[in-house]
Each structure stands twice: as structure tokens, then as C-alpha cells.
Amino acid sequence: QPVRLSDYRVPDYLVDAVALDISLDRTATRVRSTLRLRPNPEGVAGAPLDLDGDELVATALRLDGAALDLALATPDRLTIAAPPAGPFVLEVETVIDPTANTKLMGLYRSGSAYCTQCEAEGFRRITYYLDRPDVLSVFTTRIEAERDDAPVLLGNGNPVEAGAVEGTGRHYAVWHDPHPKPSYLFAVVSGRLDALRGEFTTSEGRRVALAIWVEPGKVGQAGYALDALKRSMRWDEDAFGRAYDLDVFNVVAVSDFNMGAMENKGLNVFNDKYVLASPELATDADYAGIETVIAHEYFHNWTGNRITCRDWFQLSLKEGLTVFRDQEFSADQRSRPVKRIADVRVLRARQFAEDGGPMAHSVRPDSYSEINNFYTATIYEKGAEIIRMVRTLVGPDAFARGLQHYFDRFDGTAATVEDFLGCFAEASGRDLAPFFRWYVQAGTPRVTARTHHDAATRTLTLDLAQDTAPTPGQGEKLPFVVPLRFGLVLPDGAEQPVRTGEDDGLSDAELANDTIELATATRRIRFEDVEPGTIPSLLRDFSAPVRLVTDATDADLLTLMTHDTDAFNRWDAAQTVLSRLIIARVRDGGGDPEALRTVFAAVVRTGRHDPAFAAQVLALPSEGELAREIGRDVDPDAVHAAREAVRGAVGRMLAAEFRAVIAEGAAAGPYAPDAAGAGRRAFRNAALSLLAAGDPALGAAQARAQFDGADNMTDRVAALAVLSLIPGEAREAAFAAFYERHAAEPLVIDKWFALQASIPERSTVDRVRRLLGHPAFTLGVPNRVYALLGAFGANPTEFNRPDGAGYDLVADAVVTLDGRNPQVAARLLGAFRSWRLLEPGRRALAEAALKRIAAGPDLSADVREITSRSLG
Ligand code: ARG
Ligand code: ZN
């Protein structure tokens, strides 16, 4: 049943053109598809034509004008045993019910609109087709609908004509997309929508009409998305030489969407949380998310659409590369080091967890049962890290040439990861075959570094070793090529010049790039003429997605934290010190933050000129990260208690400094969602959070004042988050006030649900069960589900309650949801990804809950694959 990469064969038929005629109706939409087909000269001659379907009903079939027996079509397949040996025309009519489509794949209703989601395999829920990414065709789409019900008719490509359907209340529009594309990039949107319009002139002189489409009354919240779109278009021209290639670019925000957004050619469809924003309703993090996702989907126009994937095993070819591109864009728009730190936090929290758990898979997997389960942090975020490593290894110039080469050579094709990497091998003259292991081996490598300084010879010996734990189905791991950016830091912070000896030296290229290439299981490097006390700063800018274990003492780390020229490593040194401290507490109640007083006071001082960075230092490692660091028999209650104790101690130790930060911040001017303002707010809110951890009564008072006085959502919700941790009437009153104020805004109510589901108290499970019955909650909208149940699943202590009630709550929800929307159900199951790290009692309860789900009747392929891998 699983699909295997090794089974890939080219298609036996090609589609030269597709003409679709879609007559929209809420429950009976008629789709007429006319396919110009011909045998693929590279395929099997005389092979049957096998078109994919999914829950389809065919109402008419014609081959070269002659009617075919409808019995050739089953809900999931249309087979023509002996098609003509030359070109032929197949006409297929299907009738589908968008209102009944609760899976949100294919054509469905969202609010007052019709919309589609076809990636990965949704097009086959609209009509029978060769629904695979290596079949590219030119699409022309006629859309017809009731004019009153659906005044807006949007398709891919450029608009061709539009008009009334004589004698009816209906109208139509025809769209033509000149760029051949696979079916997963197809889209239509229709309904009552308002547009915020704009214009962009490309470097090639093309004038592009831009529009952000939203529910009526919400254009006032689309301005930031439009601005981000224009900046993205300009940046892709400047940074990568990529210009837009159609006369229109439409973005539509819908409130029912399984994932973040979708890059359909010329017609991106978004989860509305990545479009809508105003200072009163959206946080700084929401604005940053909009900027990133708008850029991401736009950048797909080249990396994904112009060059697409040969098969879904190559998904990271477009997703990893496009994440890399959006990360670079955001880094250029904001603070580069702070963006890097934020990205690494996400990578460690989500991808390292995935790599260390039962769902571990390589960036290019070799089999899957349900492709929708592979839109993962590994494919996306680790995929982006691999591309970042390519740039580090071949250098920026060869990287730019390689990418240019990729765009030139593979434009208009469906490519593979090998095609991509080959371009950089060619541009750099380097053999990248060993590097390719990053795509095929799963797991996070551990790199250990041991140092020895010999005073007599003034040599510093650095012994590096790498090893990667087995992952499901991959027992043996070969060494990875790990680029380690580095420097040698003198005790006073100056940079020790790097010189290595004849033996155990670095190559000229390594020296020129300040990068050690660790490509073997172990490697010794000898640095010469090194001052005593010199500290290696390794993995600067997080140059590889590895877990680095060093023999640096706490004192060394505090030196790096204060002096390292690499901002990422300054931050990471602080994280390591904090993580050691908390874990010491978990183990034996030890660990005294007092030693950190001076350096942390200094961090708070630097917050005056780099508040965003200081805020990142003040955000302690998450409970999930700490659990993974502990590695086995984890008691989440103990981790939480230790982390809170350290937060409290830091809060008391620096109370005066934090109060000053809060007081100064209160005087900052009016809200603007720019990086500088966001940094100031993040810093002040980090100070508030720690102050409250140290002194809940004082913290509650400060937070309530901020909650009441805030002129923006960032500060209001940060205050509510602080209040949410302090049991009592004040908290409940704040939640009630917040609900009252924002009841009409579902995206804001999502924050209200999520904060309540995140409370680390035993009563939370009952609160969440109660909220499942709240009138604002529905299992039908993915955002609501992720807000309440997704947040609960990410609540370390309450999901992992010692009595198993947290597991049962999520398991019940998964079972209920599976019948309605399997993708959302499968995503909720992600809560169980680290269950094997738990202490035996919880582990047994989590396993029992997974088994209970797995034993259910009629499981979707999505949920079945995750439970069976998890229980594996
Ligand atoms: N290609 C989209 C993006 O990352 C993701 C769409 C995934 N949707 C799905 N149902 N699997 O931009
Ligand atoms: Zn993407």
C-alpha cells in the first residue's frame, strides 16, 4: 500500500491542454473537463490510461466525441483499457458537492465563498486526471456562477473574457494560464469578496494588477499583506533575479483552511490568519507570520511553479528551497541574527522533536502512505537548513551561480533533488555526493567537541566526533558532511587568529571560510600559537542542523555570551547555561542562578539598543527542549517546576532592572508593526513575564494595568498570558473581558482559546472539555481546532497528565475529527510525537491512547499511518 520512490515511472500519457468548464452550485457543481491527451513517447506504448479520482461521480464520458460506458469510472479511478495510439480528446463530466466537502481538499465552501485546495492530491476530487506533479499542462478555465451569490470569479493565469449568461441570473469568466503546470497548482475562488487593490511594475516592465481578496468588510485588515507582497516581489528580483510572469496576481483569504497557504499559479489561497491584521487584532508575531507566508507563497512562483517536483518524494525541492528564500527575505527585512535565532528555535522545537521520535523521516523520504502527512518540519525547515549548508560549503558566489543555473536549466520542468544539487556541484566543481546523505538519512547528528590546551607548545587540540542515533527503518548511519563555522575567542573577547599545523590542519578553503568541514566520524584539529584560556566558538550562526555537545564550562559559556562576535552563539551560550541550570534542578534540586546575575544584568542593559535580541536571551529554553535534552524517563511536572523555579529566581534577582524596562517601555510611542517596535515590545514583555514569575502579586498588578491600557494586541495578549499563569479571580475576569471585547473576531478568539488551553494546571483538562462546548468553538474550522486542541496538545504538563486524561482528551478529538477532516485529525496527533521520552507511567498511558485510536474502525489513511508509525 505505501508509495515508494523506487517505483517511480514516467507517465504513459501526457496532457497537452486542459479546458475546464465549472458551473458552480452549492451542492451540485458540474465540472466538464476536456483533455487533449497523447501517449508519452517515453512511456509504455499501448498502456491503459488510468486517471485518478477521489469520491467522484462521472455523469458523462466521451472519447474523440463518442460516448463511453460510465461503468469505466469508479469513485477513485477512470480506466480506459486501450486508448488510441495517437493524440485523442477525452471529455469527462463530474458532479460534486462543495458544501458536503468537510475534508477541505478539492472544491469546498468557506464562509460565503467557493474555494479549492489541490495540493497534494485534491484535484482528483474535482475531476478525473493524471493527478501527479510531473504531468504539466496548459489550463483554460471557464467559471460560471449565480451573480448575486458569487459576483467574483477567479482562476489561474490571466483573465480572458467575462459576461452574463443570457436569460439567467448567472455570469461567467474565462481564465487562461499560459504556463504549463501540474494539477496541484490549479485553483478557483468565487463568492462575495472585497478586494484591496495594488499595482506592481516588474524589472522587465510588466505591470501587474495585485489584489488581496477578503470577506466583505475586512479590506481594512489587508494592507499589511499587500505591502508585504510588493516587498516580496521587489526582493525576489533583487536577490534572485526572479520577476513575476503574469498580468495579475490574486491572493484570497479564507477562514477554513487546513494549513497555512497555497501557491496556486497567480491565485494564492491563504488561511486568513496569514492575511488579516490590524494593530488592535494582530500581534507582532502575527505580522511577522503574514510577511513570511506572503513571501513564501509568492516565491513559490519560481521555486515550485516554474520549476516543480517530479514526484512527491521531492517535496523538499520546492518547500525547503522556498523556506530558505522566505527566511532570507525576512532576515533582510528585519534583524538577521534575531531572525536566525527565531528560526533555530522553531527547528529545535519541531524538527529535532520529529527527528528524535517515531515519525522521523528523511528530507527526501523513500516511502509514504499519505503524502499529506509529509508536510513536516523535516521537509520544510530541515530542507531549508540543507540549502543553507550548501551555500556555506560552496560559498556565496558558487551558490548564486548554481541557483541561476537551476533556474535556467529546469524552468518549465518537474525536477528532482539530484537535479538541484547537481547545479551546485557543477558551479563549484565540488563532489556533493557525500553531502547528499543529508537528504536520505533521517535523524539529528550529535557533534561532540573536546578541547585540550597544551601550555608548553601553545597548541589547542580540538577533537570532534559525530554520531547519529538509529531512526525507524534506518539502523546504520554514515557520517554527514557537517560545516562548522567557528572562531577562537580569547578570554577578553578578542578573536584569536587561526593557524593550524601541517598535521591535523585545516584546508585553505576551510581557513578562508572560517568553516571546519567535519565529514568523517571523528576528526582532530590542532591550532597553533593559541593563548591559554582561548575558547572555541563552534557552529556559529547555527551552520548545521546538529546537536552540539561541548566541554565548555559555564564560565566559558558566560564569556561567549558576553563577547562572541557571533550573535547566534552569544544567544546559544545563554541558552546552554540556562538549560544546564534547569536540568541540574530537575536532577537534584541544585542549580543556583545567582552566578548568572552579572551577565544577565548586562543582557538587560544591552536590551536598550538591541531589545529584540535581549528578549530572545530572556526567553528560557522550552520545556519540550529541556525534555529532549534530558532524553529519557521524563517527568514533565518536574521539568516545569524546575523551569518555573529558575524563571522565578531570575525574576527576583533582576526585579529592579525589569521594573525599569517595563516603566520605560510604557512611554514608547504609538504602535507600528515594524521590527524595531516589535523588538521593544518583546523585550518589555519578556521582562514582565519574568518579573511576574518572581513576584506573582506584583506581576499580576503590572499585567492587569498593561492589559487595560494597551493600544495594541501584542501588549494586551502578552499581559493576558502573564495573568493566565496566576490562578484566581483576576485571571478569570481578564479572560471574560477579553472575550467580551473580541467576540466578533474569530482569529482573536483563537488566542483566547489557545491561552486557556496552555494553562499549566490540573483543572485545564476540564476547562478545555468545557470550551469544546463553547458557542465560539467548532470542530469544522481548522483554526479553532488548532487553537484549542492543538494548544492543549502542546501543553507539556497537562497533555502529559499523570492520570492520562490529557491523552484521552486529544485521542477522543482525533477519533471524532477523523471522520470529518483526516488531515486536521492527523495533525493533532502530532501531540504524541515525543511519547517515548516519558517516564514509564505516562509512557504506558500515551501508548494505550494511541492503541485505542489505532483500533478504531474506518480510520483514514492519514491517521492510520501516524498511529502505526508512532506505535511502530
Ligand atoms: N504548498 C503549500 C505551502 O507550503 C502547502 C500546502 C499543503 N497542503 C496540504 N493539504 N498538504 O506553501
Ligand atoms: Zn510552501
From TrEMBL:
<dbReference type="InterPro" id="IPR045357">
    <property type="entry name" value="Aminopeptidase_N-like_N"/>
</dbReference>
<dbReference type="InterPro" id="IPR042097">
    <property type="entry name" value="Aminopeptidase_N-like_N_sf"/>
</dbReference>
<dbReference type="GO" id="GO:0016285">
    <property type="term" value="F:alanyl aminopeptidase activity"/>
</dbReference>
<dbReference type="InterPro" id="IPR001930">
    <property type="entry name" value="Peptidase_M1"/>
</dbReference>
<dbReference type="InterPro" id="IPR012779">
    <property type="entry name" value="Peptidase_M1_pepN"/>
</dbReference>
<keyword id="KW-0482">Metalloprotease</keyword>
<keyword id="KW-0862">Zinc</keyword>
<keyword id="KW-0645">Protease</keyword>
<dbReference type="InterPro" id="IPR024601">
    <property type="entry name" value="Peptidase_M1_pepN_C"/>
</dbReference>
<dbReference type="GO" id="GO:0008270">
    <property type="term" value="F:zinc ion binding"/>
</dbReference>
<dbReference type="InterPro" id="IPR027268">
    <property type="entry name" value="Peptidase_M4/M1_CTD_sf"/>
</dbReference>
<feature type="domain" description="Aminopeptidase N-like N-terminal">
    <location>
        <begin position="101"/>
        <end position="185"/>
    </location>
</feature>
<feature type="domain" description="Peptidase M1 alanyl aminopeptidase Ig-like fold">
    <location>
        <begin position="443"/>
        <end position="550"/>
    </location>
</feature>
<keyword id="KW-0031">Aminopeptidase</keyword>
<dbReference type="Pfam" id="PF17432">
    <property type="entry name" value="DUF3458_C"/>
</dbReference>
<keyword id="KW-0378">Hydrolase</keyword>
<protein>
    <recommendedName>
        <fullName>Aminopeptidase N</fullName>
        <ecNumber>3.4.11.2</ecNumber>
    </recommendedName>
</protein>
<dbReference type="Pfam" id="PF17900">
    <property type="entry name" value="Peptidase_M1_N"/>
</dbReference>
<dbReference type="GO" id="GO:0006508">
    <property type="term" value="P:proteolysis"/>
</dbReference>
<feature type="domain" description="Peptidase M1 membrane alanine aminopeptidase">
    <location>
        <begin position="224"/>
        <end position="437"/>
    </location>
</feature>
<dbReference type="InterPro" id="IPR035414">
    <property type="entry name" value="Peptidase_M1_pepN_Ig-like"/>
</dbReference>
<comment type="similarity">
    <text>Belongs to the peptidase M1 family.</text>
</comment>
<dbReference type="InterPro" id="IPR037144">
    <property type="entry name" value="Peptidase_M1_pepN_C_sf"/>
</dbReference>
<keyword id="KW-0479">Metal-binding</keyword>
<feature type="domain" description="Peptidase M1 alanyl aminopeptidase C-terminal">
    <location>
        <begin position="554"/>
        <end position="871"/>
    </location>
</feature>
<dbReference type="Pfam" id="PF01433">
    <property type="entry name" value="Peptidase_M1"/>
</dbReference>
<dbReference type="Pfam" id="PF11940">
    <property type="entry name" value="DUF3458"/>
</dbReference>
<dbReference type="GO" id="GO:0008237">
    <property type="term" value="F:metallopeptidase activity"/>
</dbReference>
<dbReference type="InterPro" id="IPR038438">
    <property type="entry name" value="PepN_Ig-like_sf"/>
</dbReference>
<dbReference type="InterPro" id="IPR014782">
    <property type="entry name" value="Peptidase_M1_dom"/>
</dbReference>
